[in-house]
Amino acid sequence: NAGVTQTPKFRILKIGQSMTLQCTQDMNHNYMYWYRQDPGMGLKLIYYSVGAGITDKGEVPNGYNVSRSTTEDFPLRLELAAPSQTSVYFCASSYSPNTNYGYTFGSGTRLTVV
Amino acid sequence: DQQVKQNSPSLSVQEGRISILNCDYTNSMFDYFLWYKKYPAEGPTFLISISSIKDKNEDGRFTVFLNKSAKHLSLHIVPSQPGDSAVYFCAASVETSGSRLTFGEGTQLTVNP
How far, in Å, CA of B15 to CA of A99, rounded? Predict the structure, then answer.
């Protein structure tokens, strides 16, 4: 059981470039999330989805876009990369809206924008 | 506006002793609280949770205490083991928010043999 898979694990982008961070889960979870973690900071919610075709903004959505065409996949798109987007990105999924089940996180994508 | 705060960036304890990690929150709407553990180069993993209708929840060596009047929760690890060395994140949610979590900054726990 792979859980939540994120690719790539590392990436260096130049300012102004674009890229897509991939996230796939094989647990048939309806709820999926993208978080970023900056050094010394907690995880900040970028976007989330409660099911295929439904997405919504989190706390820090500017500079990002998402789509959810299938239950399994929740890619995060960075347009016009900026140094402020240097961070570690975590994708997560959840079976239920009830938080007592917790999230399953991927292992992260470390992105550097230079 | 940091709604969930972990004021201690690091904590060091001896193996076998108790580790106490603290977390404060400001949003009185939070009704579910969780602790996550994170090793380097891995994603966070769910550790233990507590509903606001309780003041204590126990799972093996891990116990979470909630003081709603003080808006404070703590994670106790007894006895601490070297494998517990990791970053611990406190998180909170409003149950009706679609399980969106608000995280604290994290506390690096080091358990010395």
Answer: 31
Give how far Cα A58 sits from Cα of A10, A14, A46, A48, A73, Å: 24, 25, 5, 7, 18
SS3 assignment, position B70: coil
The pair of structure tokens assigned to B75 is: 């994670």
Give pLDDT tens digits for A4-23.
999 999 999 999 999 999 99
pLDDT tens for residues B64-102? 999 999 999 999 999 999 999 999 999 998 877 666 889
A interface residues, B as partner, C-beta within 8 Å: 4, 31, 33, 35, 40-45, 48, 50, 58, 90, 92, 94, 96-108
Contact between residue B80 and residue B13 where contact means Cβ atoms under 8 Å apart: yes
Distance, in Å, from the CA atom of A74 to the CA atom of A5, rounded to the nearest integer, reads 11
Q: Which residues contact A101 (CB under 8 A, 6 or more apart)?
A: A94, A95, B99
Closest alpha carbon within chain B to A30: B98
CB contact under 8 A, B103 and A48: no
Q: Which residues, at least 6 apart from B58, have a Cβ–Cβ distance to it below 8 Å?
A: none
